Amino acid sequence: MAQRLRLEGLAYGGDYNPEQWPEEVWAEDVALMREAGVNLVSLGIFSWARLEPRPGEFDFGWLDRIIALLHEGGIRVDLATPTAAPPAWFQKAHPDVRPVTADGRVLGYGARQTYCPSSPEYAAAAARITRELVARYAGHPAVVLWHVHNEYGCHVARCYCERSAAAFRDWLRDRHKTVDALNEAWGTAFWGQRYDSFDEIDAPREAPTAVNPAQQLDFRRFSSDALLALYTAERDIIRAADPDVPVTTNFMAGLSDNLDYWSWAREVDLVATDHYLTAERADNQIGLALSADLTRSLAFGEPWLLMEHSTSAVNWQPRNIAKRPGEMARNSLAHVARGADGVMFFQWRASRAGAEKYHSAMLPHAGTDTRLWREVVDLGARLRELAPLRGSRVRAQVALVWDWESRWALELEYRPSVDLDFRERIDAYYERLWRAGITVDFVHPGADLSGYRLVVAPSMYVTRAAWAENLRAWVRSGGTLLTSYFTGIVDENDAVHPGGYPGALRDVLGVRAEEFLPLRRGETTTLVAPPRMDGAAAAPGTASRWAEDLALEGASAVLQHADGPAAGRPAVTRHAFGAGTAWYVATAPDTGTLDALLRAALADAGVHTPSGLPDGVERVRRVGADGRDREIVINHTLSDATVPGPEGPVSVPAGTVRVLASEPLESVGSPTDQ
After folding, report:
1. String of b and e for 503-534 (b: at least 16 CB within 10 Å)?
2. Which domains, and CATH codes, for the chain?
């Protein structure tokens, strides 16, 4: 069960870096925060050099003063351990701590996260500053959340130095127990890679050609675990001294594939994430919704915290597109709609120097006489109005399977096609469900599926035997499963399930493929329904990327290829299995065809598809502990829209947000530019 923040209403604020400014600015900051409705700021994230200017010498006076000012102003603190930015003195004293890339390059100092996750010197120094912080601020009434580090794995997800290699060997001993078991798991008989001792094993450094994929997959697991161990070490220090205050770190759900967040989510008291729009994508609100749904799923349905997003442009994309009027409110409230109990930004006051000086902020360089500031103030007021949403839940009948191990393994070298891409298939299915108005959860393949009617597995390449049985039992009991190609193919060691494709899921899908038939770049095939006795035919569709030499073993063909390398072979199948149904989409259909297939699967599952929802309008329901539903409707388009309401049609002006309860509440946000 997630711990709740000691706040009234929804959290609102951002990263605050007072050390970048003279102290006379601090009082102005607090006054402006109060004007904007800010009630929570993240403090101290990159302050290690200021807090410990020399080894073992600490300066907390400035932090005492700013926390006191914030507390007096009614603003609570998310206090960070500053361990994402080791000081220059630490780098000079411990040059071996610098991370090493797979090709042997040693990374230099001058940025952040410049450390090897397996460095004992780094771990000791991080523990020391954490102990000092918590000894001083545990129990402080202003501190309502502890924030460990910042964006683990963002810049250095894997280190290939000798210390990392040694730690990897220890991790392998713990996982595989014996070197013989490791040889079996890794398939080292191939290319003569057999090991006689764990001491012979290295990190998967750059080599003449593709390194053993099982070794690479284990190294990804090890690297995620190594960073997690750093987090839990700091967390445990904090918990021992301040057990009543939740501890978290900020994920990058949907943005980063470096960590297995299913494992991490069990270790935080409150799930928090950072999200930044892909600015040049015209429909980037869909990626935002995916990130929010994934974060809520990592929180196992509990409310979560949006720790960072941007008021306008970021500074690190190829073209840092500024947000238009009303867009910040739509972005913020879309996260709230999908379960966030707080909206925070990077950062409070725009920096004048450093790598992120062109990143937008709540208080921009141009000051308070700006549209952006007025929208920040307005958003704070709107969030206060939406305080009744706090603690409410989002319910979903449809789940998408998301597995970081599948993503890591799928995108290694020597796969059947460069068009095999974990996110491409996930995004394709998520987008169509989003446009159909279907709210989804994401699930681990081994999760309890009993609460869902339809489970979609677009890209579950790694399929452990237990995960296959989980899906099999769920379908047999009455669930509806829809899978896409290259699912069910290998076990946890990237070894192919024997007997034909789709491997571990052949029986539940009722099909068997002898061979993959990937398509050429730009090649498409025509999809048609099999001939029927009455001679009627469905409108043809098209497919790209993939085909298979697929045979039916109990399933029925829904669509087949009319041409191409799989001409006459099934492209989409449906199989009655026990009390449930399993669909297999063995290609990449065009969007219209995929829409039709998803709607058919939704009908099989008994999931109602909303009607009357215009394209580009998002609608999500949150259910409160009081049983009262509140629906957040977001119009992402340039045109006014009308949606069904509890008492008749409801108007949602272009670029605005409406919250519908028993009676429609006021619009939230400003109109989009026309």
Report:
1. bbbbebbbbbbeebbbbeeeebbbbbbeeeee
2. 398-605 (3.40.50.880), 617-668 (2.60.40)
